[in-house]
Amino acid sequence: MPIKNRLAETHAEITGWRRHLHAHPELDFDVHETAAFVVERLRDFGVDDITTGIGKTGVVAVIKGRTDTKSRVVGLRADMDALPIEEATGLDYASKHPGKMHACGHDGHTSILLGAAQYLAETRNFDGTVVLAFQPAEEGGGGGREMVNDGLIDRWGIQEVYGLHNMPGLPTGSFAIRPGALLASADEFEVTVTGKGGHAAAPHQSIDPNVAAAHIILGLQSIASRNVDPLASAVVSVCALHSDIDTHNIIPQVTRMTGTVRALDSDVRDFVEARVTEIVTATAQAYQCEAKVDYTVGYPVTINHDEHTEYAAAAARAVAGDVITDIPPIMAAEDFSFMLNACPGAYIMLGNGDGPMVHHPEYQFDDEAIPAGASWFVELVEQRMPAQ
Ligand SMILES: [Zn+2]
Ligand SMILES: [Zn+2]
Question: Average pLDDT per run of 10 along the chain, which is 388 residues long?
């Protein structure tokens, strides 16, 4: 196996960190224990510099190579946060925090980057500087954006940045990537439809916001099917629908719905946003209701830079042999997109074997993927900043 030998040796130790983090999941920006654990490990490795509190609870560390003749700086990123899910794996190291679970494998990503950091601090077999970014709040809070806003790219002079995510369904330790859009943008909307409540037996004396809401939902389905180019991609999903009534004999006054918009292109994204507002407003009016749309722009499209996709694939090839370089885009989103918008780089999928998908209560990160993931980070550094 072209796994770095030293990483085969440290595999058990890294797995221990991963399982510790798995048992102690934290949410959003509230990753204080996780960040402290990361800092403790980085201190043990003897990295050159550690800064905490970047992007609220993010950690940035610096490892200098044996030489620095070209002032090169490569950034490597991992996410630290978990999800508000009750774990159902039955593992002996399952979550000790009720209602919280590392169901997206960010415990694995953090441990993989720690494993790479340990290796790089030991060997320093490169010419330049590595900047490690451990970010909070990937799952919706925009920790990546906060770290960029706190100067992650500029302050540390990062010239190119790389990240990975585990992927169930791909063989463990294999890699898949594509140039261009890999993951979608993700926006949220909340629609409030106001009618006139009344007795359910006298609908003619009321204005039923539920009927308007039903037509709005159907109308929204026409955006992806009728308005967006069939060869482009868009998703409009209404995920929650609530009226202010919970009985069988009252017409409600107000009905609310929330949903998400996904796209792989910023023009499509803007177009869908405009159509959501038009359809909601006009349909509500047609059914004598008033509607308000609160549209929140979320994570941008994750776009791999062409050249850096090649570098990422070359490092993956050195680790795993064959690499898929044309994986279809995925309509999930990633706030690594904020880093890729600020700096060239690439994001790769790391095979996690068969099993439940991420965000499922029975999802399990496969510790056998650790040596491949950590070797990939190390290869990237050694290939992009070869030792003199
Ligand atoms: Zn996730
Ligand atoms: Zn994730």
Answer: 82 98 98 98 98 98 98 98 98 98 98 98 98 97 98 98 98 98 98 98 98 98 97 96 95 98 96 98 98 97 98 98 97 97 98 97 98 98 97
Backbone region of residue 318 per phi and psi (left: phi > 0; alpha: psi in -120 to 50; beta: other values): alpha
Please tell me the distance between residue 104's alpha carbon and the centre of ligand 2 in angstroms. 5
Distance 288 CA to ligand 2 centre (A): 42
Q: Where are the beta strands (DSSP E) in 24-121?
A: 49-54, 58-64, 73-79
CA of 156 to the centre of ligand 1 (A): 27
Separation CA 171–CA 181 (nearest Å)? 23
- Centre of ligand 2 to C-alpha 79, Å, is 8
Question: Cα of 160 to ligand 1 centre, how many Å?
Answer: 24
- The alpha carbon of 12 and the centre of ligand 1 are apart by a number of angstroms equal to 25
User: Which tokens hold the place of 148?
Assistant: 């960029």
Q: How far is CA 135 from CA 163, 174, 251, in A?
A: 11, 24, 46
Cα–Cα distance, 169 to 36 (Å, whole number): 32
* Distance of alpha carbon 387 from alpha carbon 228, whole angstroms: 49
What's the CA-to-centroid distance between 28 and ligand 1, angstroms?
11
Q: Are strands 290-299 and 185-194 parallel, antiparallel or unpaired?
A: antiparallel
For the chain, the straight-line distance linking the first and the last C-alpha, in angstroms and rounded, comes to: 26
What count of Cα atoms within 13 Å lies in the side-chain half-sphere of residue 133?
A: 33
Q: Specify the residue for token string 């950690």.
A: 59
Tell me whether residue 90 is exposed, middle or buried, using C-beta atoms within 10 angstroms of its C-beta: 0 to 12, 13 to 18, 19 or more: exposed
Kindly report the pTM of this predicted structure: 0.94
